[in-house]
Amino acid sequence: MLIRSVQTDDIAALAALAGELGYPTSSEEMARRMAGLDDRDAVFVADEDSVCVGWIQASIVESLETGRFAEIRALVVSATRRSSGIGAALVGAVEKWAAAKACPRIRVRSNVVRERTHRFYERLGFRVTKSQKVFDKG
Known about the structure:
This protein has helices spanning 11-20, 27-35, 86-100, 115-123; strands spanning 2-5, 41-48, 51-63, 67-77, 106-108. By secondary structure, the protein is of the alpha+beta class. The protein has a five-stranded mixed sheet with strand order 1-2-3-4-5.
């Protein structure tokens, strides 16, 4: 398995994997989203024999309230490949990227119903620091 930066050829696989996680997305929409990223964003993929089996997105956040940190925005591994170390390898890539960007802290948010995901992050050394509600408008 190879962890590498995302490429344009990966867009269809990213969209399909987002759908597996419960966020159906077309390749066209994923391409539009990718086009909006900049140097404060990173997307890494797990490549097995030229097949994208997982991906992670992280962003640098400059917060007046809490200071600079990196945030994992999304992490998905193919249902057929979960619990095989791919997620941990993708998080490791973000950790290296964040260190190179001088981010001393990495944050991740996880839906309260994703208990397996919570255990995954706790095994990697993350700890719960607060619970909150998310409000959307529009």
